[in-house]
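Module 6 notes. Inverse folding takes a fixed backbone as the condition and produces residue identities as the prediction. Think of it as a translation problem where the source language is geometry and the target language is the twenty amino acids. Below is one complete input and output pair. Work through it position by position during the lab.
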């Protein structure tokens, strides 16, 4: 619906603004346009780092808006336009402010994180860091990752497409400058389906690349999303996807049944897959991946993991390891001999794994 704002305005003329999903900042901008905020140092509850709609210990850091690709199932470019990257100095200033305000984990987001800066020709910009030194950074995925990696907090990369230059960032993960975690929306394993989807950086050699990433950073966590039942998907193409999944052995996976979104070009593709076939394929996909994810998770039993605490209960605290992004991945349930604090990072000995989560005991604070 958001792709056709005029229809919403026609039905509800008093609506102030229409934004896309998760565009928190646009919602706040619209509110501020309607009711400009008046600064009152005695009453102002908004801290200088701004409003974050996430708990205090982690925050989303948006580095760009829009997208230059035209995947046939997606209306984001229609909603938000082409890629517009923030100057790297702006991003770094915000990141430092958040770190100073107590944020322990930054979740770097955009529509296409690895394309960051292509629209502004990777322009360098400078800012004064917390120590008062003037620093310069280019608006490039690697350079920004390296600069964020100097902040001494967790930095997690989301929505990274497997362009060749992504390989350069893997050593930063191996050195723990940024978290050994990549959220890469692969969407399918069949070349033909990917072509119909018009995916950027499609899967050619992706299995080899995954193997190489694991050589450089053996404990890297790979998360991805997929669509089953895309128009024209044959049984053979779906089976290629299942085989690809087996070989890729990803840690975390989300799967969606194809839904025709209003305004998406894929609606006009021939041979839409019947609902019952989509349903059946979704179940087969999930069954295959659940075995893989459980196998990957089980390898952690007996290891020690750094865990950031999200909430504290009467007997156990709930947190996440470096392998778990908030809200989309699993959790680590932590027993501790002393009460834990939200936002604290502890060393946890992993004792047990179930389908999605880990359980263990804090052994270092
Ligand atoms: S890369 Fe494709 S799916 Fe992602 S935002 Fe751009 S057009 Fe949409």
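Target side of the pair, the amino acids:
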């Amino acid at each position: 619906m958001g792709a056709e704002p005029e229809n919403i305005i026609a039905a509800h003329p008093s609506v102030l603004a229409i934004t896309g999903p998760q565009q928190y900042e646009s919602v706040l901008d619209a509110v501020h346009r309607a009711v400009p905020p008046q600064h009152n140092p005695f009453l102002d509850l908004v801290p200088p780092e701004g409003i974050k709609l996430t708990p205090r210990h982690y925050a989303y850091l948006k580095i760009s808006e829009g997208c230059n690709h035209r995947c046939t199932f997606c209306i984001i470019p229609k909603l938000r336009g082409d890629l517009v990257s923030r100057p790297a100095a702006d991003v770094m200033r915000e990141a430092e402010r958040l770190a100073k305000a107590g944020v322990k984990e930054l979740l770097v987001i955009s529509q296409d994180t690895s394309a960051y800066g292509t629209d502004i020709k990777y322009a360098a910009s400078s800012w004064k860091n917390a120590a008062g030194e003037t620093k310069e950074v280019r608006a490039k995925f690697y350079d920004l990752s390296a600069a964020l990696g100097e902040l001494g907090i967790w930095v997690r990369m989301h929505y990274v497409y497997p362009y060749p230059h992504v390989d350069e960032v893997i050593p930063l993960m191996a050195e723990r400058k940024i978290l050994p975690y990549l959220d890469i929306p692969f969407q399918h394993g069949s070349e033909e389906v990917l072509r119909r989807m018009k995916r950027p950086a499609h899967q050619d050699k992706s299995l080899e690349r995954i193997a190489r990433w694991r050589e450089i950073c053996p404990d890297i966590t790979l998360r991805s999303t997929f669509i089953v039942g895309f128009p024209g998907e044959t049984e053979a193409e779906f089976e290629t996807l299942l085989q690809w999944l087996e070989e890729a052995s990803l840690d975390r996976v989300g799967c969606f049944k194809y839904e025709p979104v209003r305004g998406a070009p894929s609606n006009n593709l021939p041979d839409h897959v019947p609902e019952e076939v989509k349903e059946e394929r979704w179940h087969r996909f999930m069954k295959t991946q659940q075995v893989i994810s459980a196998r990957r998770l089980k390898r952690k039993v007996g290891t020690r993991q750094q865990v950031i605490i999200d909430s504290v209960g009467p007997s156990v605290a709930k947190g996440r390891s470096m392998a778990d992004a908030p809200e989309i991945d699993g959790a680590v349930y932590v027993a501790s001999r002393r009460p834990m604090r939200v936002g604290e990072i502890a060393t946890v000995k992993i004792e047990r794994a179930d389908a999605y989560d880990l359980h263990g005991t804090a052994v270092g604070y």
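Reference fact for the lab report: The chain has ten helices and 15 strands.
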